[in-house]
What does this fold into?
Amino acid sequence: MAIGILEETFYGYPPCWWKYRAIPFVAVFSLVYYLAVFVFQYLSLDVGLFERMPRLLLRVLYLAICVGISHLLCELNAPDVLMTVPVTLWTTCGGLYLMVQTREWDVRGGPLPKLEKFGMRGKVVFITGANAGVGRETVSQLVAKGAIVILACRSEEKALDAMNVII
It folds into this structure.
């Protein structure tokens, strides 16, 4: 008898006592998301938080939708299988897809600029064999990233030729 009471109620509350909190939760976060997209996309405001805030709002909105769907299934008294399988699929597959897409694409529709992992500006690098082949390509990449490169070549003429080609 006590087990049946615990199944029907959750510590004295009805089984779906939080269903009234799910609808405002989803509505508020979707409203905030669309407002942020409007402000950043259509008004073209360049704020330092633009690169992170829309992606964060997308993730919060997605989680709010998943919570709202699970609450809706609970409200409809769906069987446990219908409540667990779709919610698990939505949160894993859809969440991974959303995270991949929001990291690669900006809200405005263009690809994000690739950020370099290691900044080389102001660092001193010593490269041997810098006048040909892999050494020359390494020097050109390091110079493009702002590094101070010291060339080590067999002769001064080869070093000057490599400098002229790279610069």
